[in-house]
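Inputs:
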Amino acid sequence: MELRCKNLLSIGDLAPEEITLILDTAGSMKEVSERDIKKVPTLRGKTVINLFFEPSTRTRTSFEIAGKRLSADVINITAGSSSVVKGETLRDTGENLQAMHPDLIVVRHSCAGAPKILADALPAAIINAGDGAHEHPTQALLDAFTMRERTGRLAGLKVAIIGDITHSRVARSNIFLLNMMGAQVRVSGPQTMVPRFIESLGVAFVPSLIDAVRDVDVIMMLRIQRERQNQSLFPSVREYSRFFGLSSDVLRHARPDVLVMHPGPVNRGIEMSAEVMDGPASIILDQVTNGVAVRMALMYLLIGK
Amino acid sequence: MDTSDIDRTLNRIAFELWEHNRGAETFAFIGIRRRGVTIANRLARKLQEFTGVRIPVGALDITLYRDDLSEIASHPVLKKTEIPFPIKGTKIYLCDDVMYTGRTIRAALDGIHDLGRPEAIRLVVLIDRGHRELPIQPDYTGRNITTAKQERVEVQLEEDDGIDQAFITGGA
Amino acid sequence: MALLIKNGRVIDPASKTDALLDVLVEGGKIIELGAKIAAGGGTEILDAAGLLVVPGLIDMHTHLREPGHEYKETIRTGARAAAAGGFTSIVCMANTNPVNDSASVTNFILQQAKTQACVNVYPVGALTRELQGEALSEYGDMKAAGIIALSDDGKTVKSAEVMRRCLEYAKTFSLPVICHCEDSDLAGRGVMHEGMVSTRLGMRGIAPAAEELIVAREITLADWVGHPVHIAHASTAGSVRIIREAKARGVAVTAETAPHYFTLTDEEVSSFDTATKVNPPLRRLQDVVEIKKALQDGTIDAIASDHAPHSTLEKDVEFDNAAFGMIGLETSLPLALALVDEGVLTLSQAIEKYTVNPAGILKIEKGRIAAGWDADITIIDPDCEYVLEKARLYSKSSNSPFLGRHLKGRAAFTIIAGSIVYPFAD
């Protein structure tokens, strides 16, 4: 079985069977990461470039480790945050890189649609590692892998995504993937940070946090960014954590077997209390481990031939 | 080969193995997915019947070690490697159904060494059809046959395919 | 030399003429219209059989980028694009560099137009100095230099108090005021319409309220001051509703829309093609429907392209960073003719939006085919079907979302002061 697409820019590039293929392949890749010698020669001689226009340690490291475990040559480039500032257009940067014949370019950029510019211009395979608030498909894939690993399924799963939905590419990709795989998604958060038309994406908006966490299989908390306070999106961190943060008190209204997830990095004490974060429901570290396996699977399926 | 041929051949191999290992070091089977695993399981079962000793069996997926990934049309389905015993210090009997160019075995040798350093590796194949491209030879062979390069040797086993048989297809 | 246009279907909305007539032109003026005019000696004959003969089209909203951004467009190239699009008169906005907020810049533009432009160019002067929305510019001086109207287009005058003073001062000089309606705070860093598509794409949206608030504001101020306002590029159902209600009350307001607002929706932005990035943004289907109804019932008086050339420097970048705007002089007419094909407008109504209506708003003596009027005439081939190709554009820029699309209808001849300007001799 194959992936039909040359690139992974958004979840919409994949069909449900392809998502299943990626998750199954990731399962086998996970085993490689559990050996003493965490390396297989599959992508030997392939060149992977991590082109990150936005700072990110964890995602970049995850892709780097994934590539290296498959024996690829991985190069990290942290470019200036705006091509306008640098004076070189994104397409020019891409074409210069193409001259080094990369097989795969992993791109993170603050502008929606930026990876598509590269995908349209270059023969290399492109993975979107996050473009503005648009999508972060590998995050959704690793989240789905983690959910499936823990519960045995995706279809029929009830998932609550809570926080700054408007600015979250993690929320969008997860919504698209979970809907495609038959899960049921609800979102919650302050009205300033949930788009007016969010239900047109096929999710339910549940304004009350307590109602949102009731009777779901998975609670996915999103990161709040401090600068949103200056944009009049929430008045204070104190208020946010009190009314929209996941504390043990709130968790008591959820099912006892509920799973708590977060794409990271977590603002301890703000969107999640320390107890919840370190508690038994949290599978945040699993997400990180699985991130490497899922990215290995994706690299293998996109350029492993 | 038919059902009884295969069974007789595996019995013979099992006895040979036991002869050479009687009383001595621990050993284990590793089968190359998919049918190599079936063969390894059968050999282990037969040895348990004859001797009462439980021999561990592991399964090795060599997809990630193939040297021809860029030439094949589509990705083979990846299955997990599952080895429930330590490689280090173990004498390993590597099992496969058909040996041909030797490249699969080379990939398997690399795969095993990435997991640890075995005491020794011995190669068991049900059918050797010749046409080596690498200097690797089996230690235990079920049957040697002559084939033309364009022919295919198919092995079917009950656990995988519902029936035990081996036959040659294609050819001039 | 006289010119006789024969056998064409003459449509003059002002006189409700729609008939097969000949038109005789001489000395830059229309001499007569008649059923079968005999050609005198030395008269050039233009056979317009199967074609529409209409008053020279007026585009009352373009950006010619000169002075300052000549790499995107010049008065010369913009005029050629206009002529190729069937326009005999165009109005150019003041957001040049330097801004046209003084007689000296107005003089420069008019001088360039005189020597370089093959169509009539009417400059608009800025309402406030440097479009900063703070200090009045010299309306009297600019009017004497030749501006035809005032506008800070590209921006809205932020302070309602300053806008009130602009309207009062414009009233002093009887200058029409054209309003770009956008509350910049509410619009924020939005790049497309705020709706289901922007939610799906994760792009910052511009709420329709950003336009509607200022439409309501300008109309309220116009009513209070007693000076008409003209709403530029109306794009939302809400704006249309506010304008309709104001007109029903008798407020002196007129409005224009651009062809992309009755042709494209925000779905187009899904491709991240920067040619679809425009301000006001492409709206929902419901808005497109309401814009068409407003054209039909006269709520919207004029169609103006808001021709906004940008080079690859501004457009071949990430969507967020791309400049707003699309060229439109060469696609305006076929898109309006599509409305006729759809049954939204009659041919006469469509032509009206480009002729007698804008001429009335701008108070210029154009937009009619009648004896004694200027011989600015557009001859349209309504049935010609073609694919819009970059190589065939006369504009210096090519930022149009219609490239590669099928269009129907185009100008066959553009005649200004009795001379055939398009097709070009060169």
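Residues 56-362 of chain C form a domain with the TIM Barrel fold (CATH 3.20.20.140). Flag for discussion at group meeting.
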